[in-house]
Amino acid sequence: MPLAVNDIVQRLGGPEAAARLTNVSLEALRKWKQAGTIPSKHWRTILAATGLTLSDMPGSALSGSVTDPVSKDVPTMPDAQNPASLAPPEGATAVLVLADGSLWWGRGFGAHTPEGGARVGEVCFNTGLTGYQETMTDPSFAGQIVTFTFPHIGNVGANPQDDEAGTPAARGLVTAQDVTEPSNWRAARSFVAWLQAMDLPGIGGIDTRALTMRIRDGGAPSGVLAFPASGRFDIPALQAQAAAWPGLEGMDLAKEVSCTQSYEWTETVWQWGEAPALETGGHQAAPRHHVVAVDYGAKRNILRSLASAGCRVTVVPATATAEDILRHQPDGLFLSNGPGDPAATAAYAVPAIQGVMATGLPIFGICLGHQLLATALGAKTYKLDRGHRGANQPVKDLATGKVEITSQNHGFAVDDNSLPDGVEVSHVSLFDGSNEGIRAPRSRAFSVQYHPEASPGPSDSHHLFHRFVAMMDADKAKG
After folding, report:
1. pLDDT tens-digit map of 4-60
2. What percent of the chain has pLDDT over 90?
3. What's the 3-state SS for the chain?
4. Do 375 and 357 contact (CB within 8 A), yes or no?
5. If both were cysteines, with which of 5, 112, 318, 340 could 229 make a disulfide (CB 3.0 to 4.6 Å apart)?
6. Looking at 164, 267, 436, 453, which residue is catalytic?
7. Is 451 a catalytic residue?
8. Do 70 and 107 form a contact (C-beta atoms < 8 A)?
9. Catalytic residue among 367, 370, 388, 436
């Protein structure tokens, strides 16, 4: 049960002490008591000072003060001694169960989950306003249940051209509202029909603001999404499943989403208004360079961007060795995005990267590729509390002073303090100051944490593909 605001103020040492600790006025404290809630931005400070938990916070999404979550959009904390608290409320056909035991009831859509086959993963949030189909097919979302903060999901339908991979790696999605019918000339079918075909379950009618604040303030939790056709829920089993899932730290997922054999890629970025854009995009006429792209979970639009920049692209599996890569006689090496813990993937990726680096070939990495390049250069990585996921992330280029709005999807970051001599920080996040890019001139390598191909998202950073090509141009000029 949540505590009263006055009880929490007293635990902090009284009004004056509480005001000093939270850096607010006594008038603000009075308003907290009047409203019966404490703004979530103060929860972390209060929890650290008192030893309380999120469920003790008045106004917390975990307080369980509302008992009809389908209509009121808030979760409940069931009482194991009261079987009635485990029953779905009227209208609920799906449930999201977090590792803390909270139940987020809602309306299911998309594919049903089989008995005993609820989807378990890390629950994260994405702030993008567009591109829900690209998001769900981004291999970097492997092992995750995606919460969309934007309420209108489904309005542009789905089509084959917007898939970023052949098989979605995400495990489910959470929305605030029911998925809408498509109203777009490119829609080949509804988003719900697409989800059913892709075996992806969803849950709607959730207060995604409350869930996002839960993730923001408490970190990304493990969770289970159940949408059984029978309408029967084994809540204790789902709670146990959510609590037992180990999380993404230490998990190598790149091998699960990578290709299994090498292939060539020639399709270029679509040009709207041209007929090929509605089918498969354009194709290269005369590529200037040959690039090997290591597929740790590569998005198709990244490969299109390389092709449009003048590269003939050979894609190789994540487990390719330096010998496998160099056998193709490339002019440059590209390290793709991907899911999971870079420290786990590094076991086989770093020796390959270091082997190619020793030859002096230009190297460009993004997202997981950025983290793996940094690791190969001697740096360390760590897990972010909530990650960066969305198409509105501001990043500063330290060399130019310019700020770019970027598309991002990552839960780990490079530790600036671990970068060795000769490796420079090139970009920083203006949200939290975390590393967004490195440059290693002596190793002829650079990388960024974000997605310059921006699918979906802004195209501010597309010039990075041309920077990579310029390095290969310089090699050709030298002969």
Report:
1. 888 899 999 999 999 888 888 888 888 888 777 787 668 778 888 898 876 788 754
2. 73
3. CCCCHHHHHHHCCCHHHHHHHHCCCHHHHHHHHHHCCCCHHHHHHHHHHHCCCHHHCCCCCCCCCCCCHHHHCCCECCCCCCHHHHCCCCCCCEEEEECCCCEEEEEEEECCCCCCCCEEEEEEEECCCCCHHHHHHCHHHCCEEEEECCCCCCCCCECHHHCCCCCCCCCEEECCCCCCCCCCCCCCECHHHHHHHCCCEEEECCCHHHHHHHHHHHCCCEEEEECCCCCCCCHHHHHHHHHHCCCCCCCCCHHHHCCCCCEEECECCCCCCCHHHHCCCCECCCCCEEEEEEECCCCHHHHHHHHHCCEEEEEEECCCCHHHHHCCCCCEEEECCCCCCHHHHHHHHHHHHHHHHCCCCCEEEECHHHHHHHHHCCCCEEEEEEEEEEEEEEEEECCCCCEEEEEEEEEEEECHHHCCCCCEEEEEECCCCCEEEEEEHHHCEEEECCECCCCCCCCCCCHHHHHHHHHHHHHHHHC
4. no
5. 112
6. 453
7. yes
8. yes
9. 367
The whole-number pLDDT of residue 277 equals: 42
Q: For 223-239, write each residue's pLDDT tens digit.
A: 999 999 999 999 999 99
CB atoms within 10 A of CB 119: 21
pTM over 0.85: no
The two beta strands, 103-110 and 94-98, are antiparallel
Look up 279 and say whether it is catalytic. no
pLDDT at residue 281 is higher than 70: no
Residue that has been written with the tokens 């002019």 in this structure = 331
Does pLDDT of 273 surpass 90? Answer: no
pLDDT digits (tens, 9 = 90+) for 87-133: 888 889 999 999 999 999 999 999 999 988 999 999 999 999 999 99
290 is catalytic: no
One-letter amino acid identity for 23? N
Residue-wise pLDDT tens digits, 386-401: 899 999 999 999 999 9
Measure the CA–CA gap between 295 and 335, rounded to whole angstroms: 7
